[in-house]
Each structure stands twice: as C-alpha cells, then as structure tokens.
Amino acid sequence: QVQLVESGGGLVQAGGSLRLSCAASGIIFSINDMRWYRQAPGKQREWVALITSGGNTNYADSVKGRFTISRDNAKNTVYLQMNSLKPEDTAVYYCNVLRKATSLQNYWGQGTQVTVSS
C-alpha cells in the first residue's frame, strides 16, 4: 500500500528555517511528481510546491523565493526547505502524490505541524 510519512515540523521563530521530509513507499518514486500542501485552521488546503519526476519545480507565490523543494530518488524522499519563515506559514504541512499507477489517484501523508512564532 501507498505510504507517505512527513517529518521535520516543529516550533520556530519568525525568520528561522525548517526542513521537512516526506518518505514514500508503495510507489515507483522516480516516475511520480511530488507536491507539498499546507492547511491552517479555518482555511482550505493550499498547494505550496511541486517537483516533477524530471526535477522541474514550481511554487505558490506566497512562498516563492523562501521555500525550496527537492527530491532524492535513491532515498524515495522529497524535501521542503523553508527559510525566512513568517507567522502566516503556520499550518499542517502535507506530502501528496497523484499516483500514476492508480490513474492519478491522490494520496496524502499524515501531516507535520509547523508553528512560526513572532
């Protein structure tokens, strides 16, 4: 079965940095595009970043220039490096894949909490 496990969240002061990790299993990792989303209380889930199987990246305007998505296919892991964090970045961050083997069915991790204090 597909499993996505996020880690690396925590409490950080504004201006600080965190690196999130998402370890994937049950998929052919190297052929799948990977995404990060986040959801704050009372708000809908928001797309944050994309990395394609070929290594191309794209970001939401709210994080562009501050966040970097990357992947290590040998470790079946996708990362989100978050710099210059702001209180509005506070959310639960989720790893996501539209799995090619299941006709682009969505799979989600359990999420990891990021809290940015002022």
Outline the structure in words.
With about 120 residues, this protein is mainly β. Helix content is about 0%, strand content about 55%. The chain has strands at about 5, 10-15, 20-25, 35-40, 45-50, 55-60, 65-70, 75-80, 90-100, 105-110, 110-115. The strands form two sheets. Strands 2, 4, 5, 6, 9, 10 and 11 form a seven-stranded mixed beta sheet that branches. Strand 9 and strand 10 (about 105-110) form a beta hairpin. The termini are far apart. The mean pLDDT is about 95.
Strand content: over 45%
Binned, the helix content reads under 10%
Provide the gyration radius in Å.
Answer: 14 Å
CA-to-CA gap between the ends?
40 Å
Low-pLDDT parts are none
> How does the helix and strand content classify structurally?
mainly beta
Q: What is the succession of H and E elements?
A: EEEEEEEEEEE
> What is the total tally of β strands?
11
Shape: globular
Largest sheet: 7 strands, mixed
Count of helical stretches: 0
Mean pLDDT, all residues: 97
